[in-house]
Design brief:
The chain has 71 residues and is mainly α. It has 3 helices and no strands. It folds into 2 domains: 40 residues, no CATH class; 30 residues. This is Metallopeptidase MepB.
Amino acid sequence: MRVDVYNALLNAQRKDEKLTDEEQRLVEKMILDGKHAALALPEDKRTELMKLKKGFSVVCTDFSQNYNWVR
């Protein structure tokens, strides 16, 4: 999800717009997805988190390859 979409969802929720129950649940779920994607963090923290995730992914891939090689 893009940051601008996440911010638009937050604004829609804050303005207490007239949404059906289904639409409200969708907005809440999308906001939660945005939080899980670190969109609630400031840009510098989000960038740092993405670097850490990428490094972790590389380490996990290396481990899996080495583990499979040993077996």
